[in-house]
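Quick illustration, no need to memorize.
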Amino acid sequence: MRHFDFAPLYRATVGFDQIADMMDRTLASDTPQPSYPPYNIEKTAEDAWRISIAVAGFADSDLSVELKEQQLVVSARKAEEDEGKTYLHRGIATRAFERRFTLADHVRVTGAVHEHGMLHIDLKREIPEALKPRRIEIARASSHPAIAQDVVDGSSVN
C-alpha cells in the first residue's frame, strides 16, 4: 500500500484541510469497500451529475434516499418474503444495503427516479450569488473622499 504525504498541500493552501483529511482517511483505510450494489457516476453537464444504482428486486417503498450533512445516504431494506417460495437458483441479490456519497459544497440533490431496476439520483452544483466571481471597479483616489483626505501633497511637505 502506498502512503502519500499531504504536507505540501497543507503548506500551499488554506481551507482545504477537509479534502486532505478525507483523502488521507480513504487511502489509509484497510477495510475493503463494499461492491454491492453496483453503481455509476455520470457527468451530465458542466455542473451536474447522475448517480445510477442497480436496485433490481427493490420496490420504491424499500428504498430510502437522504441527505445528511453533505452526505448522500442511499439505503434499502427488503420486506420479508413469503416462506412458501422455493428457489432453484437465486442470483438476484435483494439484501439490505447502505451506500454513502460525500457531496462537495453547494452540490444539491435535484431529484431521484426509480425505473427499470435502476435508481437515478440527479445532482447539481449551485453556487450562491455571493460566492460567484464579480468585478471590483478601481476608483481614482481623487474621486473617493475617504482615500482623497489621506493623500498628502508632496510639495506641501517641508
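The chain is about 15% helix and 30% strand.
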